[in-house]
Structure formats: C-alpha cells, structure tokens
Design a protein that fits this description.
Blueprint: H1 6-23, H2 35-45, H3 54-63, H4 65-98, H5 104-137, H6 142-158, H7 164-184
Helix pairs in contact: 1-3, 1-7, 2-4, 3-4, 3-5, 4-5, 5-6, 5-7, 6-7
C-alpha cells in the first residue's frame, strides 16, 4: 500500500489545514460590514472544499478497491452538495447582504439542506476510509480514526466558523496524520 509517500501526505493533510487557516478569518456573523469578506472568503474556499474528499478516497482505494469506489461516490456527493452550501450561504448570501438585498433566509435554508447532504457524505467517506486503515493497521490506527471522524462530524456541525470549525479541520488533519503513521508502522507483511 502506497500510503506513506509525500504526495499522499500532502493530498490528505494540506486541504484541511489550509481550510482551517482560512477559517480563522471567517466572520462569526453575516453583517453588512462583514459581507464582502464573507463573500470573498467563500470564493477562496470554493475550490478547496472538494479537495477534502481526496484524502479518504486515496486511503480507501489503496486498501480495498470496493471501499475506494464507495469513498469516491461519497466524496463526489460531498463535493457537489457541500459546494452548494458554500455557493449559496457563502457567496450568494454575502453578495446579497453586501448589496443590501433581501432573500437571505431562503438562500440560507437551501444552503443548509444541501450542505447537510454533502457533510453526511464526507462523514461517510471518512468512515469508510478509516475502516480500511483499521483493517491494515489495526488498533494502532484507532485514535486517528476517531479523531478524524470527530473532525468530520464537527465540520458538519460547525462548518469552518472559529473556533470549533477550525478545530474540526485540524482534527481531520491530525486524525489522518495518525492513521498514515499507523499504516507506515504496521508490521512487515501485514495488510
């Protein structure tokens, strides 16, 4: 299994860390004064959020092709529907507020529903990939799996709002780092 290469580490860890760093600047509330920053931050995040799906897919496909396909499909659902949240509640809502137009409740309602679908899919992809790692690395990977799953759940609950959304992204990265180390340290011939 080729989970220990630098490219894998980068693909698994860089997206949640960069999202966490951007999340540190996320306004707590969408106000008139924060609306342009809110909108622009979500434009920056738009190409980054789908990259979260790459880590679980890379891990799962290297362990078990069936789980690779499962995480690919779940990652795709996540990328589509979470992008809808980012576009509606981030970009559109920020633009509407900045332009002093109505309709925020409608935009946030749709965004929340679509984002929930994406978040659940990301949580599922993370669980499937973590299960693959547990199969090959055993109990040594369990703390990382739990931290990563906790981070994925926190992401679903808190988006990237500081502090908990940022902590969630860092937990995703820390959990994956732990699992990658666990895979690297497994006994020769295992998995």
């Amino acid at each position: 299994m080729a989970l220990t290469g630098i490219r894998t580490w980068l693909a698994v860890l860089v997206p949640p860390i960069v999202i966490a760093l951007v999340g540190l600047t996320h306004p707590a509330h969408l106000t008139q004064d924060a609306s342009a920053r809110w909108r622009d931050l979500h434009i920056v995040l738009l190409p980054l959020f789908p990259l979260l799906a790459v880590g679980p897919w890379l891990v799962a496909r290297s362990v078990e092709p069936l789980y690779g396909w499962i995480t690919l499909v779940l990652g795709y659902v996540y990328a589509c529907f979470y992008s809808a949240l980012d576009i509606l509640a981030g970009i559109a809502a920020g633009a509407l507020k900045h332009d002093r137009e109505g309709g925020l409740g409608t935009v946030f309602g749709y965004a929340s529903d679509l984002g929930q679908i994406g978040s659940i899919a990301y949580l599922g992809a993370t669980a499937a990939a973590a299960g693959c790692v547990l199969r090959v690395a055993g109990a040594r990977a369990l703390p990382g799996a739990l931290v990563s799953l906790g981070g994925a759940y926190g992401f679903m609950e808190n988006h990237v709002y500081p502090p908990w959304g940022v902590v969630s992204m860092l937990a995703v990265a820390a959990g994956w780092a732990w699992m990658l180390v666990a895979v690297r340290l497994r006994p020769a011939g295992a998995g």
